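Input.
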Amino acid sequence: MTELPEPPERSPLSGITVVSVEQAVAAPFATRQLADLGARVIKVERPGGGDFARRYDTTVHGESSYFVWLNRSKESVTLDLKSDRGREILERLLGEADVFVQNLAPGAAARMGLGADALAERFPSLIPCSISGYGSSGPWADRKAYDLLVQCQTGLVSLTGNEHGAARAGVSVADIAAGMYAYSGILTALFTRATTGVARAVEVSLFEALAEWMSQPAYYTRHGGTQPPRIGTQHATIAPYGAYTAADGKDVLFSIQNEREWVALCERFLQRPDLVADVRFATGSARVAHRGELNEVVAARFARSDSAEVMKLLDEAGIANAGVNDVEEFLAHPVLSARDRWRDVPLPGGAMVPALLPPADLAGTAPRMDAVPAVGEHTEGILAELGYSAAEVAGLQAGHVI
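Output.
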């Protein structure tokens, strides 16, 4: 029998309140995932413009594609944190919160008394999470860091692209990595607090998050004496593994992972059983060493069939393959539609936009997929919860505190 989803009030993180002074990508990605699980996420934004990621573009019914992706199911409060009254309101919010997340500029949190040690003195049960560029200590603690800068510093850009030049990864991988580690760190800290009563601070840097993802090429370079080559869609250490162009002009990528698959490729797809025993290709290392000659053989075979036939023959040979899709083809992918992965999410102004369900399905529960907030949409309601009168709220508005 299929389990029915839990009602929203019984979501995994229902009852958990997160206050986040966040902007851009890394911190909002972490907190959106907490909101997906039912946490109440109160997003603190600047009065007026709010999170600057709101203005990265205007492609989604006038809203930023980044902001729509990262900020559904949150409540937006505007506060001038440079003012005493704004910080007083933040203090009252933190007094009711379980988690505080911030990715302010280097040193800003400490100057406002929002560092982990200072918060622990005032709010011993609060879990603070700091997301920075290069960490809170060390020689680069005061440097600003954005995604592409970190891609450069970790060496990732030197691995992407092709023989004609380097390229950035097509998505914000440093921000995404940091957001994922912040998310898992916060979940770990919540579990620790629940089981020991101790609230532990979480610290994540973009640089160290992406450094972890660079470990395989780092091992290869340190112990092999040279870094993996930059070769486009080809795999640096496995061959054949990459995209080749079929007769109809569409690229198809396939991968050979073991000797059984190599034999099947030679006999059933390439129709060259003689290559199985060819010393140039007899082992994985030999195939990498003779990649150029091997690519000529594979490319010639691809040129004789259209992409549908290529994929059919590779499937029949038991070899993993996929067409190289563009984003439009991804959006229409049959797996997403057949598995019912899209949900409509409201935008400010009332438009609806399809959004993907979170990738981790938890049996018996359904993720929150609520609206993307307008700037300051929830300010008055939350101030009322904190005990502010209508006259006090009007005074805060007149003083540009909210």
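The CA atoms of residues 21 and 102 lie 5 Å apart.
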